[in-house]
Amino acid sequence: MLIDFLYKLKSHKLPVSIKEYLTLLEGLQKGVIGTSIDEFYHFSRIALVKDEAHFDKFDRAFGEFWEGIETIPGIEGQIPLEWLLKQAELSLSEEEKKQIEALGGWEKLMETLKKRLEEQKERHQGGNKWIGTGGTSPYGAYGYNPEGIRIGQSGSRNRRAVKVWDQREFQNLDDSVELGTRNIKVALRRLRRFARQGAAEEFDLDGTITATARKAYLDIHMRPERRNAIKVLLFLDIGGSMDDHVKLCQEMFSAAKTEFKHLEYFYFHNCLYDFVWKDNRRRHSERTRTWDVLHKYGHDYKVIFVGDATMSPYEILQAGGSIEYFNEEPGAVWLKRVTDVYQRCVWLNPEPKEIWGYRQSVSIIRELMKDRMFPTTIAGLEDAMKLLAK
Amino acid sequence: MRFAGSNEYVATDDLTLAVNAAITLERPLLIKGEPGTGKTMLAVQVAKSLGVPLLEWHVKSTTKAQQGLYEYDAVSRLRDSQLGDPRVQDISNYIIKGMLWQAFSLDAPCVLLIDEVDKADIEFPNDLLREIDRMEFYVYETRELIKAKHRPIVFITSNNEKELPDAFLRRCFFHYIRFPEKDTMEKIVQVHFPDLKKNLLREALDVFFEVRDVPGLKKKPSTSELLDWLKLLLAEDIPAEALRSKDRKTIIPPLHGALLKNEQDVHLFERLVFMTRAKNT
């Protein structure tokens, strides 16, 4: 029973175990839930999915598996018009709004939509005329909104009538999404390595007991406090094409700053050359020579570059390639020096991984970094931290 | 035993289903969700409505799994031995029962809350696998096996600061408390402030959800913050009209300190208000 369902979930890469599946069956046997499919949806999610990041995958798998089996009628006809208006207004740009005006304004448009809602008696997925949840284009005939006006459900909904999984409310919890500070912190925590170093200030109870028992007199032992011993050197690309990613870099930086006790950071522009700086306002007056950085911070530091690696290949490979001044040695040499000194070294790229292949400079940097380039998604960051922690 | 919400706690359908499944199948229920959505309160309310005792184990970053089972007070024993106390002969005098042991030894089922499990060390959940699964553990000092007389109803809350190990997750049920929708929120507020004026409530909720919608807030206000804010509004006797304005974005809500807990967020909010005001004039 329900074995196909288990395999469906597995095929969607959900980490479901046999034990959990048996628990689900046990629950069904004991009558935890009634006969409604909504209850089954909730119960199977409680029993099988253990991370809200997987909820979206689960919703999709569930939708696919149960499509056609359940008999709950669609409720698209009940969407309040006001809500549709509101939602559509939000997702349309000024230009698109003008086009709508040209077509006779909102009222006419909504009238057409209403008519179509009346015509349509059942739930529809996909297609380009009917309104439905699965398709991207509810009334695509007009073709002015590139994404189509999405019809979902209003805030106050009648739970029994709606198929909850089709709403895919947990979409943004999937772990391929962009980062927030808190998520970054969680990912950075993988880099924790506690060690006892420094002055012995903490009372060591176990040590004292053992020593006392052994020597038959009170022998107090102290030990150093446990601290995160990871040292991090952060290089941030700033300006130019990185302007699009300022928010992400800010978040990353603030998360890193609170997470690591030993964090040193420097800025560079596009590619690493013979100097870096710590304050962008005084970047021309207060520079640090990259050589000094390499000499000052020991090889036990872990190095993280943050940059989009998007530039002309000359900026990496040629002497004098920098767009700001004449650099005597090419950026590639400097990057190689850094990777030589620091064994643990990654490059985080805020650009989506899919477009890396189209940019020559990204491939060059990736090669220089020995393929240790990761996208700045939660999953990417976690992979990067795993590699650094090894 | 069935849980169906209480008059002090509004539980959504899926939440009650999760709680009842956990009770029937005797599995621990792991609760996650935004801070302030009532994760801890759930255990308290379930215990209250089922009429069973509640044992709370608050986990801190220094908490060890062993502390939940028992602790051996070696220092007292050492001192007693030097003073010649006869109690020293029996090691069980120096074993201090932890929360799990207390829950296991009760004669009736109880609710056990393991609060903020993610605060502890990364190995903490792994050290509790057998205890959670079979509800038993072994005391090495006295060589006895402690087994639960009645399996306690276990609630575990997490704020997602650390990932929990798969082996641990497999033994739990999991429920994610979503941020309540406006309807549910109205019910929640009604439970806490039964005699709140209707119009004040509506205005306050509008303002609250608008503040939550401000893009780029570091910490979005949560249910508990809304309740605090309403308490303040009531205490200060602020009329509903003060919250209302033609374009609500043009006023900073009174006593906004209860909603926005981060000075950067307050600045951001003020800047947005300032911008809309500049645009309107």
Q: How would you sum up the global shape of chain B?
A: elongated
Number of strands of chain B: 9
CATH architectural label of the largest domain in chain A: 3-Layer(aba) Sandwich
N-to-C order of helices and strands of chain B: HEHEHEHEHEHEEEHEHHHHH
Instruction: Sketch the major β-sheet of chain A.
Output: 5 strands, parallel
N- and C-termini, Cα separation of chain A: 43 Å
Task: Count the beta strands of chain A.
Answer: 9
Helix share, percent of chain A: 40-55%
Strand order of the largest sheet of chain A: 4-3-7-8-9
Low-confidence stretches of chain B: none
- Specify the number of helices of chain B: 12
Structural class of chain A: alpha/beta
Number of helices of chain A: 16
Low-confidence parts of chain A lasting 5 or more residues at pLDDT below 50? 70-91, 121-162
What would CATH call the homologous superfamily of the largest domain in chain B? Answer: P-loop containing nucleotide triphosphate hydrolases
Summarize the SSE layout with pairings.
The complex is a heterodimer of chains A (390) and B (281).
Chain A lengths: L2 H9 L6 H12 L7 H12 L6 H12 L14 H11 L2 H9 L2 H15 L44 H4 L13 H8 L5 E10 L1 H11 L6 E7 L2 E7 L8 H14 L2 E7 L6 E3 L9 E3 H7 L5 E5 L6 H5 L13 H11 L3 E5 L10 H9 L4 E3 L2 H12 L1
Parallel strand pairs in A: 3-4, 3-7, 7-8, 8-9
Antiparallel strand pairs in A: 1-2, 5-6
Helix pairs in contact in A: 1-4, 2-3, 9-11, 9-16
Chain B lengths: L12 H13 L3 E5 L5 H12 L3 E5 L6 H5 E3 L1 H10 L11 E3 L1 H7 L5 E5 L13 H6 L1 E4 L4 E4 L5 E5 L8 H5 L2 E5 L4 H11 L5 H16 L9 H14 L3 H4 L19 H18 L1
Parallel strand pairs in B: 1-8, 1-9, 2-5, 5-8
Antiparallel strand pairs in B: 3-4, 6-7
What does this structure look like?
The complex is a heterodimer of chains A (390) and B (281). Chain A has 390 residues and is of the alpha/beta class. Chain A is 41% helix and 13% strand. In chain A, the strands form 3 sheets. A 5-stranded parallel β-sheet of chain A has the order 4-3-7-8-9, with helices on one face. In chain A, helix 1 packs across helix 4, helix 9 packs across helix 11 and helix 9 packs parallel to helix 16. Chain B is α/β, with parallel strands linked by helices. In chain B, 43% of the residues lie in helices and 14% in strands. Chain B has 12 helices and 9 strands. In chain B, the strands form 3 sheets. In chain B, strands 2-5-8-1-9 form a 5-stranded parallel β-sheet, sandwiched between helices. In chain B, strand 6 and strand 7 form a beta hairpin. Classes of the chains: A alpha/beta (390), B alpha/beta (281). At the A-B interface, helix 2, helix 3, helix 9 and helix 10 of A face helix 1, helix 4, helix 7 and strand 9 of B.
